[in-house]
Structure formats: C-alpha cells, structure tokens
Amino acid sequence: MFRVITTYRNGIARPIVEKGPWHPSRQHTEYWAEQLQQAGYIVEIESQGSGGVANSDHSDLAAALASMA
C-alpha cells in the first residue's frame, strides 16, 4: 500500500502537509504523485509496508537501500 504526501505553503510560515488515500499499487501512486508535482506541490510517496517515506525522485535509491537493510 502506498500514498502520496503533499506539502505546500498557503501564505503562512509553516508548510501544510496533507496525506492522501492509500493505493494498492506503486504505479498508481506514482501517477498521482506526478500529477500533483506538475501542479506545483512538493510530493513524497509513503509505503505502508516499510513505514518509510521516499521522495518520488529518489524512489530507486530508497528501494535499493531498503533491500540492503
């Protein structure tokens, strides 16, 4: 299970962090992350299985490091 976490600023000092719904496939989640990133949001993908958050730009690196643990 994966979900997209978006971060943005709404004219205030502290960023607003919103967590989206869980999706069963990473491919579906990456699609939504890309759409939100194109709209100007900072996005991350969270994996329920590993409990970690991986920046979508570094997902391959995160997967490689996780397999080494």
Give structural notes.
With 69 residues, this protein is an alpha+beta fold. The protein has one domain (2-68). Helix content is 33%, strand content 29%. The chain is built from 2 helices and 4 strands. It has a 4-stranded antiparallel beta sheet. A hairpin with a 5-residue loop joins strand 3 and strand 4 (53-55). The protein is globular, with a radius of gyration of 12 Å. The relative contact order is 0.23.
Strand order of the largest sheet: 2-1-3-4
Overall mean pLDDT:
80
Count of domain modules? 1
Helix percent reads: 25-40%
Overall body shape: globular
**Taking Cα atoms only, what radius of gyration do you get, to the nearest Å?**
12 Å
Oligomer: single chain
Q: Span between N and C termini?
A: 20 Å
Order of helices and strands: EEHEEH
Structural class: alpha+beta
Poorly predicted segments: none
- Report the biggest beta sheet as strand number plus sense, adding barrel if it closes: 4 strands, antiparallel
